[in-house]
Design brief:
Length: about 200
Amino acid sequence: MSTANSRGAGPTPAALIPPPDARPPVRHPDAPAPGELLGSHYDHCFGCGAGQAHGLHLAARAGAGVTITAEFTVRPAHQGAPGLAHGGVLATALDETLGSLNWLLRKIAVTGRLETDYVRPVPVDTVLFLQAEITAVAGRKIYSTAVGRIGGPEGPVAVRAQALFIEVKVEHFIDNGRPEEIRAAMADPDQIRRARAFEVNP
């Protein structure tokens, strides 16, 4: 079953519709303050890590309630068609932004489903302005939406997404990740940075 998407992007897949018993999300009391830069959750993350030469270097800030804003600049390394951002790169930017929302709940969660709508091309050297919010929580399931605009935070919409994230334990990463990276992340003496290293992954 699916319902009409209020953003005019076609029907919403049933998996992305919160169940009747879903509840509104609650911002964790220790969540970053509105306006605070979240920083990279993992230095080698393709979405936000400073250690990735050709990564997106996406910068996200906490917003009010359970919202965040983020930006990234499309570089030549991110091309698909000549002079235009690759669609997979744009989906990555949406996924990274949506995943960062979970830090406002102080939950470790992974992408279960990401539905992306491409509205208009995004040229190289364009700054993509992203806004995201959590819409509902049902058990381990976290429902969220995001939109990316060009030309400014109020500019024309280029991409949209709906997502379902699933809360997991850190063992999800320990059991499935490559051992050398897991050991290095777990050895970080900074407790917050160590927790955030396992924040957003499929």
